[in-house]
Design a protein that fits this description.
single chain; mainly alpha; 8 strands
């Protein structure tokens, strides 16, 4: 129960609210589902602001890149889901800090050195998407540095696409048919996830989180409302320890209800199980995590005599087939759960050499 002077109360809507003054003297609030959760959030927020204020006083003229990254992470921990924070933490400590280390942030030429970072990551064979993520987080950190410390050399005006653009090879129609034929040859509940991704474009984490309750057979629809992933467990004992998290997808657009194609609906009906069981296991407690399911896909590819690909190529393949069949990009974007059409066009649509040849011939004629 709240104590006198804590400024914590239970609202009429059932939530708990704690009010506090920030460093400017303005009142702000944090909310929680219980008194304890709200009090913990309040203490974390106060500690964070005190640490930031103390750090800012200590490093007036010599602000290291690493210290700014760590302050940014400290703020993000209060605002984002554990899965997002785990991703940010990995990017900062595995890619950004090792590159700039403890250099003074005022002395870094971010415009030219960011290009060097991107080129280095390309040589390390990181995926294009991952490199774009790293650059995106860097831009957020630099905006924070400009806002917090008035650092002026933080604008990145270089178009990174010219350095990062490479062509992603999707499954061609023959490979796709060979894989589907192999999946249908012998009944195995684990194969359903690959079929769902090929026919509906779901991400691997979304497939691993699917339960039979997410499928409405009478309406012929599938609801994507969760994603399953392994993230770092940030405790005081072992920072490197990981855990499985089943959480909502990364954006509102990713939460979607999709019609199931009839051919897939017929297949799913052959495996139907209790509502509270995972589709890939048929059990309520046991799930298959993404890394494990990636290995299962590799086995299917080997059995079908198809080159090795990562699981996300199934999603690229679905999007590319959709464009080839003249599905409008707006509809495709919503099916994939993207926040904008631009993302769909930039990341997931890969015209084949045959399509390019036809286009060139049309122009020439």
């Amino acid at each position: 129960m709240p104590k006198r002077g804590e400024n914590i109360r239970k609202r009429k809507d059932g939530r708990w609210e704690a009010r506090y003054k920030d460093k400017t003297g303005k009142y702000k609030s944090v909310y929680g589902k219980s008194y304890k959760e709200t009090k913990d959030k309040l203490n974390n927020r106060r500690n964070t602001e005190e640490n930031l204020a103390s750090t800012k006083m200590q490093i007036k003229d010599s602000i290291t890149f690493q210290s700014v990254c760590e302050q940014w992470l400290c703020l993000k921990k209060l605002k984002v889901k554990i899965s997002s924070y785990s991703n940010y933490h990995t990017i900062v400590y595995n890619h950004l800090i090792p590159f700039w280390k403890d250099r003074n942030i005022n002395e870094i030429d971010f415009q030219s050195e960011t290009i060097q970072l991107a080129e280095m990551k390309l040589k390390e064979n990181l995926s294009i998407k991952r490199i774009q993520e790293i650059i995106g987080r860097l831009k957020q950190i630099l905006k924070f540095a400009k806002r917090q410390y008035n650092i002026q050399n933080t604008d990145i005006e270089v178009d990174l696409q010219q350095y990062l653009k490479t062509e992603i090879e999707v499954l061609n129609e023959e490979e796709q048919k060979k894989l589907i034929d192999m999946l249908l040859m012998k009944k195995d509940v684990k194969k359903l996830g690959v079929l769902i991704s090929l026919f509906m474009g779901l991400r691997i984490g979304e497939v691993c989180a699917l339960k039979w309750s997410d499928i409405d057979f009478s309406a012929g629809t599938l609801t994507v409302s969760k994603t399953l992933q392994r993230v770092k467990c940030f405790d005081e004992v072992r920072l490197s320890k990981t855990k499985i998290v089943v959480d909502t997808p990364k954006s509102l657009k990713s939460r979607r209800c999709l019609p199931i194609p009839l051919v897939l609906l017929r297949i799913l009906k052959e495996y139907i199980n209790k509502d509270d069981t995972y589709i890939l296991t048929g059990k309520s407690e046991n799930y298959i995590e993404p890394r494990q399911y990636e290995n299962i896909l590799n086995g299917y590819l080997k059995e079908a005599h198809i080159r090795k690909i990562n699981y996300h190529i199934l999603r690229h393949t679905f999007a590319t087939r959709a464009i080839e069949k003249n599905i409008d990009v707006k509809t495709l974007s919503e099916i994939l759960g993207h926040s904008s059409i631009a993302i769909t066009l930039q990341l997931y649509v890969h015209p084949s050499m045959e399509d390019k040849k036809k286009s060139i011939e049309k122009i020439a004629s």
